[in-house]
């Protein structure tokens, strides 16, 4: 239903449990918090497109099913980017909901 890849600053995470296959309870955000770089703000860019042949296979998509590309950037209170997460979602399986203050 989803393909996802996270990119983190090498100088920040080198030699830490974040680089392990199993990052432990709470995942990479908990590990970033332990390093003093907890995510405090997220931005997302969302695009809808038709999938590549590899994505059709990996996600077992039916013909004509679009995918959602979501690029999420996690930022600290100081607006330091600590993660870029690139997600490709089966467009028929997700509803994205966002809340905004006026």
Description:
The chain has 102 residues and is an alpha+beta fold. The protein has a domain at 2-7 and 38-90: Chorismate lyase, CATH 3.40.1410.10. 19% of the residues lie in helices and 33% in strands. The protein is built from three helices and four strands; from the N terminus they run βααβαββ. The protein has helices at 10-13, 27-34, 53-59, and strands at 2-7, 41-49, 67-75, 81-90. It has a four-stranded antiparallel beta sheet with strand order 1-4-3-2. The termini are far apart.
Features:
globular; Chorismate lyase; alpha+beta; four-stranded antiparallel beta sheet; 102 residues
Find the count of extended strands (DSSP E, 2+ residues): 4
How much β-strand is present in the residues? 25-35%
Please name the CATH architecture of the domain at 2-7 and 38-90. Answer: 3-Layer(aba) Sandwich
What is the 3D shape?
A: globular
**CATH top-level class of the domain at 2-7 and 38-90:** Alpha Beta
Low-confidence stretches: none
How many angstroms separate the termini?
Answer: 33 Å
Helix fraction, binned, reads: 10-25%
Largest sheet: 4 strands, antiparallel
CATH homology superfamily of the domain at 2-7 and 38-90: Chorismate lyase-like
Layout of SSEs?
Blueprint: E1 2-7, H1 10-13, H2 27-34, E2 41-49, H3 53-59, E3 67-75, E4 81-90
Antiparallel strand pairs: 1-4, 2-3, 3-4
Question: What is this entry, summarized?
Answer:
The protein is of the alpha+beta class. The chain has 3 helices and 4 strands. The protein has a domain at 2-7 and 38-90: Chorismate lyase-like (Chorismate lyase).
């Amino acid at each position: 239903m989803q393909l996802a890849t996270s990119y983190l600053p090498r100088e920040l995470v080198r030699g830490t449990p974040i680089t392990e296959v199993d990052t432990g309870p709470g995942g990479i955000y908990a590990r970033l918090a332990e390093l003093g770089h907890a995510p405090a703000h997220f931005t997302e860019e969302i695009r809808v497109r038709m999938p590549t042949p590899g994505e059709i296979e990996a996600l077992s998509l039916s013909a004509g099913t679009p995918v959602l590309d979501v690029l999420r950037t996690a930022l600290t209170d100081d607006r330091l980017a600590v993660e870029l997460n690139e997600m490709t979602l089966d467009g028929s399986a997700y509803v994205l909901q966002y809340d905004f203050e006026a």
